[in-house]
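Justification of resources, computational component.

The compute hours requested in this renewal are based largely on the per-chain cost of generating structure records like the one below. Each record pairs the submitted sequence with a full structure-token output. That output is archived, and it is also reused by downstream analysis tasks.
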Amino acid sequence: MGKGRKTGKHYPQVQPSKKSLQAIKDRVTHLTTRSRTIMPLEWIVKEVNATVRGWVGYFHYRNCSKAMGHIRHHVEERLITHLRKRHKVRDRKAGYARFEKRALYERDGLYKVPATAVWKIVKVIDKLHNISFSFVEACLERSRALCLQSLNANFIFLAGIT
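The structure output for this chain reads:
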């Protein structure tokens, strides 16, 4: 059981074991070894994504954000190291400048490991469900009226042209 810093209340501390964390890190390291620099980058990213997505789907539960952050960091580091070896960039600092983490996700399509605990997302959804139905209905009615006004204005404008 863990103990909260703010309230001091006990809560169940659920996170992956050190053995499973080491296993996924070893698997990612194996998928991005230097001997695989011959393979197209798309294949490597696809294999890493499948492996990490499956592992995260199984282990991402409750308050394991710290462990997920470690996995995300390891995947980013390994892929940057792989790209440095592939393009023969010796200097680590130059490698970080050339292969930015953002580009790994946007250009190469790397799966971004979620670091936010699932229960936090569920709390936000629960708060959204607590909004009164009449308020939502009023918002929908207002937006429908604005859309109709816009359509009528465009129709009148187009009718005047022809």
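The radius of gyration is 24 Å. The chain has a mean pLDDT of 80.
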